[in-house]
Write a structure and sequence with these properties.
heterodimer, A: alpha+beta, Rossmann fold, OB fold (Dihydrolipoamide Acetyltransferase, E2P), 2 domains, six-stranded mixed sheet, five-stranded antiparallel sheet, 9 helices, 20 strands, elongated, B: mainly alpha, MetI-like fold, 13 helices, 77% helix, 0% strand
Chain lengths: 366, 271
């Protein structure tokens, strides 16, 4: 096992910059997730770690070794691809043993390692099948198995679950997390799915347009996003962003969104001092809203809105609200009296959990 | 419903017409090979006649047909084998490293009339004392086989997901090893297509052997030419020889047609 360090890594394809000055440090045995929408450079970053893509400038270290000019085969990493990339003409056993055979391990040892991995992944019955005789989930397991038999320094996963159906994805998610604990492996995992990132990662690296936006533990990036992009990317449904003006009220600072006014907690005062009287973007997560009188109390934290769409999920309900010119999504517990489309609701915001962004720079102010 | 029947009928009429036009010379050749010289040149053409095997006897007894057959096989076989040896890696490199210019260059060599190569070849091979040698013929026939191999295989390789060899390379293989162990075993249908087509084109080639070979290395199409003399044209012999030459090519095509169609359309779809 080993750490992975990227120092000021840049990748250009012609005139487009896919990865721009990326510096990240992944600790030994850490489960690191690179997340971002498609084209953000996360896969390119992963492929540069694997050695499948050259580096325009910067340095990459695996352990203490600078690997910039090393071909993939010398880096001692294993990679799981989105489309599994199983060798169609080889059996599961041969697929898993391929890398070991190249490394000239004895047949006995190859057999042992393949068996061991097959035990972990429940592939024992399938060892003599060809990839085309397997289901999507089984192929995925074989791809993971082919990686773990190698006992590499670092595991690289490139969107490994995105070809699976929703149910299987949830199951594999848990399984990969379990595998990580069991193998005590360093894992770099790329996904566009923020749920995967939140549930699996020790540390999340959020990228946009080739630039690292923020890194941190899942709860850290969730509760303290550094900018509007991160705030909107992490969490589902996405955070509501409301254009508003910051004004001084009797007790403290007030967010004036025309159709509603809410008071910010005192803790926000210091950092917002310079923004009084200016346009800001007010951010509130759907899950930080509740029907008034439903456990969230206060006076200056309530807005009145009309329910436009109501999505009942069983345990909870998504309500799409309109409040003046603002559209707001709320994610709430199912109330005793069902919410109907067209109802006028009193919605309370958990003000300490809200965010304020600079309208021009999109950076988080409070 | 009636419209559908009508369109079906029209479709099959068109198919039959096209087939007739395409197959007529072949049928003419086949029937003539069983006719006597008198029957062949009689007017109107005889649809019913007493078939004779004399023409075939002439081809196989008077002419050294077997020798020419072996020559054609040697020349075609080596030309195709060497073209695969050079063409497969070339096609792979064109497919993976987007060497479009190189690909066009190879195609150009194929599109240039073969006769324009003959003059320099004649001079070069005579100076090297390689006239009437298998070496010269095999090299010249590679001009036919190599571009076919490169073009069919490069589009075939493009259709194989890159991740397969990337995975092999991360697993510890060199690119060459990945090509041999992963890509080639998956390219069977493409290789069969390229092999069949280039062998047939080499088999059918007349011009190169006519100029570069003499008695020792003469190939089959030249043997047909032997039946044309200054005094008269032995049409029955020509036709029988032509049938004998075509038979292996047709047999090859029929055996491998499934792959040939697959291989060709694969390239077509990929553009």
């Amino acid at each position: 096992m080993a750490s992975v360090v990227l120092k000021n890594v840049v990748k250009r394809f012609g005139s487009t910059t896919a990865v721009d000055n990326l510096s990240i440090e992944i600790k030994d045995k850490e489960f690191a997730v690179l997340v971002g929408s498609s084209g953000c450079g996360k896969s390119t970053a992963l492929r540069m770690i694997a050695g499948l893509e050259t580096i325009t400038s910067g340095e990459i270290y695996i352990g203490d070794t600078r690997v910039n000019d090393m071909p993939p085969r010398e880096r001692d990493v294993a990679m799981v691809f989105q489309n599994y990339a199983l060798y169609p003409h080889m059996s599961v056993r041969e697929n898993m043993g391929f890398g070991l055979k190249i490394r000239k391990l004895s047949d006995k040892e190859i057999d042992e390692r393949v068996r061991e991995a097959a035990d972990i992944l429940g592939l024992n019955e399938l060892l003599d099948r060809k990839p085309k005789e397997l289901s999507g989930g089984q192929r995925q397991r074989v791809a993971v198995g082919r990686a773990i038999v190698r006992k590499p320094k670092v595991f690289l996963f490139d969107e490994p679950l995105s070809n699976l159906d929703a149910k299987l994805r949830v199951a594999m998610r848990a399984e990969i997390s379990k595998l990580h604990r069991r193998l005590e492996a360093t894992i770099v995992y790329v996904t566009h799915d923020q749920v995967e990132a939140m549930t699996m990662a020790d540390r999340i690296f959020i990228m946009s347009k080739g630039v690292l936006q923020q890194s941190g533990a899942p709860m850290e990036v969730y509760s303290r996003p550094v900018n509007r992009f991160v705030a909107g990317f992490i969490g589902s449904p996405a955070m509501n962003f409301i254009d508003a003006t910051l004004v001084r009220g009797d007790g403290g600072l007030i967010v004036d969104a025309e159709s509603f006014k809410v008071a910010l907690p005192e803790a926000f005062n210091a950092s917002l001092a310079g923004y009084v009287g200016r346009q800001i973007v007010f951010g509130v997560r759907p899950e930080d809203m509740a029907l008034a009188g439903n456990g969230v109390s206060g006076e200056q934290n309530i807005l009145t809105a009309r329910a436009e769409v109501v999505e009942l999920l069983g345990s909870e309900v998504f309500v799409y609200l309109s409040c003046g010119r603002h559209s707001i999504v709320a994610r709430m517990e199912v109330p005793d009296r069902a919410i109907e489309v067209g109802d006028t609701l009193q919605v309370a915001l958990k003000m300490p959990k809200t965010h304020v962004f600079d309208k021009d720079t999109s950076l988080t102010i409070a | 419903m009636n419209k559908k029947i009508l369109s079906n009928v029209l479709f099959y009429i068109a198919v039959v017409l096209i087939a007739l036009v395409v197959l007529f010379p072949f049928l003419w050749m086949l029937s003539s090979s069983f006719k006597t010289q008198v029957d062949i040149i009689s007017w109107p053409p005889k649809l019913f006649f007493e078939p004779t095997l004399a023409n075939y006897r002439k081809v196989f007894e008077e002419q050294d047909f077997l020798k020419y057959f072996i020559n054609s096989t040697i020349v075609g076989g080596f030309a195709v084998a060497l073209s695969l040896l050079l063409g497969l890696p070339a096609a792979y490199s064109i497919a993976r490293f987007a060497q479009k210019k190189l690909a066009v260059f190879i195609l150009l060599a194929r599109l240039m009339p073969g006769i324009s190569f003959l003059m320099p070849w004649y001079i070069i091979f005579s100076r090297l004392d390689l006239m009437d040698s298998y070496v010269a013929l095999v090299l010249s026939h590679m001009l036919i086989a190599l571009p076919i191999v490169v073009w069919i295989m490069s589009s075939y390789f493009e259709a194989i997901p890159r991740e397969l060899e990337e995975s092999a390379m991360v697993d510890g293989a060199t690119r060459q090893h990945a090509f041999l162990a992963i890509i080639l075993p998956l390219s069977g249908p493409g290789i069969i297509t390229a092999t069949t087509l280039s062998f047939i084109f080499s088999w059918n080639n007349f011009m190169f052997s006519q100029v570069l070979s003499m008695e020792k290395t003469k190939t089959l199409p030249i043997a047909v030419y032997n039946f044309l003399s200054y005094a008269e044209v032995d049409w029955g012999g020509v036709m029988a020889a032509a049938v004998a030459i075509m038979a292996p090519a047709i047999a090859l095509t029929m055996i491998f047609q499934k792959y040939v169609v697959k291989g060709l359309t694969m390239g077509a779809v990929k553009g």
